[in-house]
Specification:
about 375 residues; mainly beta; AttH-like fold; 13-stranded antiparallel beta sheet; globular
């Protein structure tokens, strides 16, 4: 039997020292570019999503490279995914070879052509702008929860921690004001939003098999929830990540106290991946006990990743048997707070979550 390779969340003092991080504190430079050299295998993105009061959903992501081919040179681009309140979807991008691209090391200040993602982490204020020939979006995001990360935010892989995937929820939850123009018609929106920052030094599909990730504002609670599975050679190691916050404070974030379950499975017709209609994150540390349940209503995005790859890279991906898939869902998130065995509080709100599959279905 092949030996399982070490993988772990960076929690030790030497991890903090190596990365120059402070436990429990997030600094502005952490939201700045972390892969400025564009080395082979490196990648980075800045992500924003929002759920508007009228039911509109908007997702904008700034990438330094194509997510599935980080071995290549920089390929800065921006994607937008919009679903209107009436259910009309629009997905587009801005990608022009040679377009101006800058990213600061000091904080979040990224520009790709006319598009920009700028923010002041400690002041919790961000501006995101997207424009292509069909759509335009101008967003202002104001954080209502302090920036947070699970320990160092680095998942390390290998006996020497030589490979990693890193994640920083810079704005775990906030208020959004947005003006969106689609095919000449402008609408204005208010809602709730989220921003995180991800980067790494090797293709994610080498390290990770799949993950569920979601976030929600449920009453006065803010929730970030994720369950990540490493690839087969790492023993499908599980990385639970969970945070509940109130106004300006973290209530619970010790992932070792989390139990995750998924139920009501079906096989997606487009991607042929197993999808669960119900996810439950049960957090109980002996002092506080919360249960957060996601209930899927519909899929707003689902595609095979190989369909997003072009040219020779797509040919190589087919030869390697790559069958990754991506799903984004909308539905309801239900939060229950327990006192002993009694449900003392129960709240519900709309939510967005995703299933990212890099590898083959575990057997």
């Amino acid at each position: 039997m092949p030996k399982k390779i070490l993988s772990r969340l960076g929690t030790a003092p030497e991890h903090y020292a190596k990365l120059g991080l402070k436990k429990g504190t997030v600094e502005p430079w952490e939201d700045g570019t972390r892969t400025a050299g564009g080395e082979k295998g490196s990648y980075e993105w800045w992500y924003f999503d929002s759920h508007m009061d009228d039911g509109t959903t908007l997702v904008i992501v700034f990438y330094t490279k194509h997510m599935l081919s980080p071995e290549g040179p920089p390929a800065p681009h921006v994607t937008i995914s919009l679903v209107t309140a009436e259910g009309r979807p629009y997905a587009g991008s801005f990608e022009v070879p040679g377009a101006p691209f800058t990213a600061s090391k000091e904080g979040c200040d990224v520009q790709i052509g006319p598009c920009y993602f700028r923010g002041k982490l400690l002041e919790r204020e961000y501006d995101i702008y997207f424009k292509n020939d069909k759509a335009e979006a101008a967003v202002h995001l104001t954080g209502s929860v302090p920036p947070w990360r699970p320990e160092t935010g680095h998942l390390f892989f290998g006996e020497r921690d030589q490979h990693f995937f890193a994640w920083l929820p810079s704005v775990p939850e906030g208020t959004v004001e947005a003006a969106i123009t689609l095919e000449g018609k402008t609408t204005r929106h208010r809602g709730t939003g989220y921003h995180d920052h991800n980067w790494g030094n090797i293709n994610m599909r080498i390290l990770l098999n799949h993950w569920y990730w979601g976030r929600a504002r449920i009453g006065e609670y803010r929730v970030i929830s994720s369950y990540i599975y490493g690839e087969k050679k790492y023993g499908y190691n599980e990385f639970p990540i969970f945070m509940i916050a109130g106004e300006n404070r973290i209530i619970a974030d010790d992932a070792s106290k989390l139990k995750f379950t998924a139920s009501d499975e079906f096989i997606d017709e487009e991607t042929h991946k197993p999808v669960f209609n119900r996810l439950v994150y049960d957090y109980n540390d002996g002092e506080v006990h919360y249960r957060v349940s996601y209930r899927r209503k519909k899929s707003i995005v689902n595609f095979k990743m190989i369909d997003e790859i072009k040219g020779f890279v797509k040919f190589l991906a087919r030869l390697a048997g790559f069958d990754g898939a991506y799903h984004r869902f909308t539905g309801d998130a239900v939060l229950e707070r327990f006192e002993g065995d009694r449900v003392a509080e129960k709240l519900e709100s709309p939510a967005i979550w995703e299933l990212m599959y890099f590898g083959h279905i575990p057997k």
